[in-house]
Design goal:
This protein is mainly alpha-helical. Helices cover 87% and strands 0% of the residues. The protein has one domain. It has 6 helices and no strands. The protein is globular. It starts with a helix and ends with a helix.
Amino acid sequence: MQTSIFLARLIGPVMLVVGLAVLINQREFRDLAQDFIASRALLFLSGLVMLPAGLAIILVHNIWAADGRTMVTIFGWSVTLTSAMRLLAPQFVAERGRTMLKRPRMPLFAGVFWTIAGLLFCIFGYR
C-alpha cells in the first residue's frame, strides 16, 4: 500500500496542475498540442522518455484490486501503451491528435479530465 500511496502522491499533483494549466490556457494548449504533433522528433522523444516511467510503475505496482490502487495500475499501463504507440506508430498518433484538435472543446475536455483525475489521485494519496 505504501507504493500505491507514494505513486498517487507523485502523480496526483502533477495531473492536477497540468489539468488546471490546460483549463486556464486553452488556446495556448491547442497551439502547443499542434506544434507537438507536428514534430516527429518530439513524438519519438516523449515516447522514449515516458515508456520507462510507465514500465517502472507496472513493475512495482501491477495491482488489480477494488480500490484506488487500480487507478495507479491503469495509469501505468496507459502511459506504457501510449508511449509504445508513439514509438511504433507515430503517424497514427499524429493523425489521431490532429483529429482531436479539430474539436473546439478538446482543451476544455482534456483540462477537466486531467483535473478530476489529479484530484482523485490526490484524494487517494493524501487522505
